[in-house]
Every structure is written in C-alpha cells, then in structure tokens.
Design goal:
This protein is an alpha/beta fold. It folds into 2 domains: about 120 residues, NAD(P)-binding Rossmann-like Domain (Rossmann fold), CATH 3.40.50.720; about 180 residues, Rossmann fold (3-Layer(aba) Sandwich), CATH 3.40.50.720. The chain is built from 13 helices and 12 strands. The protein has a 7-stranded parallel β-sheet with strand order 8-7-6-9-10-11-12, sandwiched between helices. It binds glyoxylic acid (2 copies). One glyoxylic acid binds next to loops.
Amino acid sequence: MKLRVFVTRPIPDAGLNLLRRAKHVLLDIYEHDKMIPRKELLRRVKGSTAILSILTDKIDKQVMDAAGASLKIIANYAVGFDNIDLKEAAKHGIVVTNTPGPEIAESVAEHTIALIFALAHRIAEADRFTRAGKYHGWGPQMLLGTDVIGKTVGIIGTGSIGTGVVNRLYDGFGVKIIYTDLTRHPDIEKRDLAKYCTLPQLLKEADFVSLHVPLLPSTRHLIGTKELKMMKKTAYLVNTSRGPIIDERALITALEKKQIAGAGIDVYEHEPNIPLALRKLPNVILTPHTASATIETRQSMSRRAAENILAFLNGKIPPNAIKQ
Ligand code: GLV
Ligand code: GLV
C-alpha cells in the first residue's frame, strides 16, 4: 500500500525528487505557489501519513483531526516550529520534525551580518537617496554611518544560528562579541569566542543586538519597552528569528523617539502585515522573512524535510525529530 505524503506548497525540488523516487510514497503537492487556503488544507490532508508543511501553515488539532488516524509525521519546512501545536501532536502520537542544519544556520547568519553592516553603513538609505537623484556632489558629512569594527555585538540565543553568527563575526570582523542564553554554550566558552552575560547586561553593552531564539511562550515579547530602554541610544536591533519575540509597537515607539539608532528586521509580529509606521522609518532595514532564502539553503531544507519523512516511513527515528 502506498502512503500518502501531502506537501502544502511547492518547494525546491531536491526533497520532492527523493519522495518521488520512494516506491511506497504517493506524493500529492498543492499545485499553486501561494499559501494553501485553510479549507483546501483541511480537505487535502485527509488520509495522509505525512504532511510536509511550511511555516505559514497553522498545523493545529483541526488539521490533525482532518488528516485522521493515518497521520504519523509532520515535517516542517523550517527551523522554527511555532506554527505547529506540539502538545496536540504528542496527544495524537504524531512525530514533528524541522530542518535545522549548518546550511540554514549559515544563510541566516549571513543575512544577519548583512543587516548589521547595512545598518552601520546606511546602505538602504544611501540607495534610496541615490535613486531619488539626491546625489549632487560628494560631501564630507553626507550620510555618515558608523564602523562595525571595534563595536560590541550582543547575541541573544546560541542555537545553530546564533552560534553561526558568533563564528562568522569572530573570524576577521574585529568586533567584541557577548552573548546570553539559558545556559552557557560549551563550544563558545571553550574556544573563548564570546563573553557570557545576562540579558540586561547585554542590552546595556551591545552596539548591535541580534535575536536568535525560538518563539516560545517564554520568549514572546522578550524585547519590549523596558528592554529597548536598556539599549544604547546608538545601538541597533536585528531580528532574523520570529516577529513576536519583539513587541513591535514598543519597537516603533523606541525608533520614533530615537531611543535606539535603528533596526534590521526580517520577521514581523503579524506577518505578512507590517505596520506603516515601521515602513516609514528611515533608520530601519526591512526584509520580507528572507534570511534563509538562498538557493542552497532552500534546496537543503527540502532534502532534510524529505529525509525526515523517509526515515520515519522506513521505521527509523527521523534525524530532526523535535522533543515533545
Ligand atoms: C524560517 O524562518 C525558518 O524557521 O526556517
Ligand atoms: C573618498 O572617496 C576618499 O577618497 O577619501
């Protein structure tokens, strides 16, 4: 008997090809390159053994019930898994997997570092300025930014992505790195890459604060009015993790009042909605949740999601099973 694998949106083909080649898999892929409507999702998951979901799909009890008793694994095409109700999955005896790994950590780390440098050197502002025909001649005080060398970068969360940023920055950028996490990170400590401190200390000391924590009840609004007030007036905030880690309204207020110098934001509290007030600010750089959007990473995520499903179907523990 063939086992039904439902993919909620077309993804790069590396993993899809693995699934296509598996003899016992009946692959069904939502045909359109847009988010699957809820009703269609509920209809299409019926009778599936596996769902390959993306981070915009809310996979809750209703979806699990709609799939029925056949559903055994949800393979999320993302590092984050806050779109999946893990408790409900555990109740249903469903395994949940994600797609962490060196490739995605590298891509998000690169995007984070790109935002840090783009903020410091005012790249996006300078681009808008130039395109608008405002460059009428070189000026000694025109569009002055700041150097990154010699500054302190504060990393909040040292999973694979936060550690990726630490490793990259340590190697040649001439910055001091500090970090905070629930526990000290053994490799960072052993290699003396960054100094451990508490969150308040980090917020007070860092010139760039970068977020790399998963979205959990305990990390929602980790950065709010109080935390923003602890930051230096000259500091920048970078978020490539999940939008709700920051209280977005508090951030807009802090930016408007110039309590901090600027922000580089890839993820938003109510995606895909981005408040107009945020979009109007000159000292922010906004990217549309594209920190992992490289060809290499999106292919490798596709492969990992498929490998998790295939391992499970072959009676093995999937390599990226999430502890529930
Ligand atoms: C992207 O946001 C991911 O979680 O992979
Ligand atoms: C700037 O272009 C310089 O030559 O210093």
